[in-house]
Design a protein that fits this description.
Layout (H helix, E strand, L loop, with lengths): L8 H4 L12 H30 L4
Length: 58
């Protein structure tokens, strides 16, 4: 029986080495640009439009 299929916990965890992938710099730049746009849009356009719609006019 192969070592990886034996019931010992040490053998089962032998092949469970996970390594993560680094996010490339340009993907980070895209996300930063997206969040800057989202915050700018919300402050510049969405909040003033919501105030006009939600505040009752006399």
């Amino acid at each position: 029986m192969p070592e990886s299929h034996s019931g010992a916990p040490e053998a089962e965890h032998r092949f469970h080495d996970y390594t993560g992938n680094d996010i490339p710099w340009y993907v980070r730049a895209i996300w930063i640009g997206f969040w800057v746009f989202a915050v700018t849009y919300t402050i510049r356009y969405l909040l003033p439009a919501m105030q006009l719609e939600l505040v009752p006019r006399p």
